[in-house]
Amino acid sequence: MDAQSRGRADDIDPADQWVLNPHTGNYELRLDQSAAESPVAARTATAEDSGHGGDAGSGSREGSGRRGAGSREGSADTPRREVPGQRSRRSAQSGGRGAEATATAGRRKRKAPKARRKKALMWTGGVLAFLVVAASLGTYLLYQRFNSNIATVDIGKQGSKNVLSDGPMNILIIGTDKRTGKGNEGYGDKNSPGHAETTILFHVSEDRTNATALSIPRDLKTRIPECETKQPDGSTAVIPGIEKERFNVSLGQDGRDPGCTMKTVAEITGIETDHFMMVDFNAVKELTTAVEGVKVCMAKPVKDPKSHLDLPAGPSTVQGEQALALLRTRNSFGNSSDLDRIKVQQQFLGSMIREMKSSDTLTNPKKLFKLADAATKSLTVDQGIGSATKLMTLAQELGKVDAKNITFVTLPVKDNPEEPKPITVVVDEVRAEPLFAMMRSDTSLTEVKQQKKAAKSKQAALLKGPKADPADVRVDVLNGGEISGAAFATVTWLQNQQGVLKSTNKANAPEKIKKTTLEYAPNQADQARALAEMMGLPATAMKPGTADAEGLQAMVLTLGGDFKGAGIPITGPAKIPDNIEKASADKEVCAK
After folding, report:
1. 337-346: buried (b, 16+ CB within 10 Å) or exposed (e) per residue?
2. Cα angle 566, 572, 574; round to 5
3. Within 10 A of 228 (CB to CB), how many other CB atoms are there?
4. pLDDT at 39 over 80
């Protein structure tokens, strides 16, 4: 609903109609700007005029303060739509005196305690703080507006995970070069549906204390696996896989959707992604304008003829076209490679995160409104997070991570050996695998020592106690991972190199699983401890039962997606390799 329909002038920004209620700590709609009374008093007068405060609409909840679209206040003769998010002030025993007391309190010029204001606003902070503004304002009208902005893509089961599921969370952020939006006609490939130009795998830890943002180069040569895509008529089309192709072809080309990009990332890293968020050129311009610019720093003056970026040495603030030009600039940084451009993009994103978490943004309702409106218009997401409510919930989860514990890294690569003059790169397995293992085992790159200490403590408690002799360990091994013949190879390794002669290959598991598990009975705990030590199983893999095993019953080891080979510990390394560069989101760095 616009300002005019609320009796306001057309030139009033919607965000200006919201004021902080000092009694609740929430932002509420100012129904009559000319009135001297507060929104609370205005609503109370409405309740008193109507004679009662009964809820008549579907979806209303008595006394909860949250109402559905169909909620009504007052009699059938004088229906009024209650402002969503307002609190009920009625009292059955007081016969309306509660409303009068509320009105009196609403007219007092009390200053809200700072702590309450801070509590009402600061929870909106985070990597995607702009997504939660509708919740902080508590309005159904804004919810409807933001909800209608969001575009979704059906990628099947890949995007079906609950936002509040336990465990780590992996979100694929995709920046596409699709030419959408005014003024973007000259960017990207003219007739292309878009590529995966900027791709970041954002891993959020299980305890929500840290996150790792892994950038994947667009010029990486890799295998793009076969993938299924939903067609407009509801049918499913299978897009064939491609060997040794650029990573950015995993999106848009030959009908590939973001689900295909997610599968490609999973194949490269061994990490399954839960959801995706996709933005285009226009998003960069709109979002940076909404926050009134992002602070950046140049180590030297930059005047790029291709991107038209023109910035002096030192700090600057960019928005709109200049912000997009910065992210597109390649020839003016480092050795003009995509890898150096990635560094600049990471520095920019770190600065944008800091801007979104700043008090200048979080305490400015007008800026928050513009940011949320621009963000939801720019986003394309999977159906699992394809509503304003789900995105708000997701943003609250991400907002728990402090900027100092968000680490940017780039996928370790090396020149493509198959090209005489390399212009593409391939994964550097030696450097990349330890990094992937750390992310799979949910080990922080910023608090490695503390995290590993806690993990070792948990592991020590698990392994504390007697261990069975290898000859007495009885285990059935199933393959629930992606490596063909993994169960057979593991049994061979256990028997020939560990002395576990009572191990049996049970072939494929009923279904694929992400994490390796070891199921055992209480009276098999000594066997479980012995096997866990041999295989380097994390504490999370141990699944003790409640009933004792009988006779020759064996434990069940199911190898998951985190299994990389017989004899390779599933737990990640203790620290990030020294030859991998990393950057923290809370540090300002000048682009070189």
Report:
1. bbbbbbbbbb
2. 130
3. 15
4. no
- Strand ranges (DSSP E) for 58-179? 151-153, 169-176
pLDDT of 503:
96
Alpha helices, DSSP H only, in 464-540?
A: 486-493, 525-535
CA nearest neighbour of 129 among 318, 315, 333, 406 = 406
Give the separation between CA 274 and CA 393, rounded to whole angstroms: 15
Flag whether pLDDT at 490 surpasses 90: yes
Q: Tokens representing 12?
A: 């009033």
Phi, then psi, of 314 in degrees rounded to 5: 95, -165
pLDDT at 275: 93
- Among residues 82, 84, 65, the alpha carbon closest in space to that of 142 is found at 84
Residue 381, pLDDT score: 92
What is the widest separation between alpha-carbon atoms in the chain?
87
Residues 6+ apart with CB under 8 A from 387: 147, 150
CA angle 373/367/292 to nearest 5° reads 100
The residue assigned the tokens 């009390």 is: 110
Whole-number Å distance between alpha carbons of 274 and 262 = 9
Give the pLDDT of residue 575: 67
Closest CA to 18 of 426, 392, 535, 364: 364
**What is the C-alpha separation between 248 and 399, in angstroms, rounded?**
29
In 3D space, the residue among 252, 254, 259 whose CA is nearest the CA of residue 194 turns out to be 252
Q: Enter the pTM of the model.
A: 0.65
Tell me which amino acid residue 183 is.
G
Determine the Cα–Cα distance for residues 38 and 19; give it in Å rounded to an integer: 9
CA distance 411 to 466: 41
For residues 545-566, b (16+ Cβ closer than 10 Å) or e, as one string?
Answer: eeeebeeeebbbbbbbbbbbeb
pLDDT of residue 25: 52
Token pair, residue 534, equals: 């041999």
Whether the predicted pLDDT of 5 surpasses 70:
no
C-alpha distance from residue 118 to each of 89, 111, 202 (Å): 24, 13, 28
Which contiguous run of DSSP H or E holds residue 279? Answer: strand 275-279
Q: Which DSSP helix (H) or strand (E) runs through 388?
A: helix 388-398
C-alpha closest to that of 317 among 588, 87, 119: 588
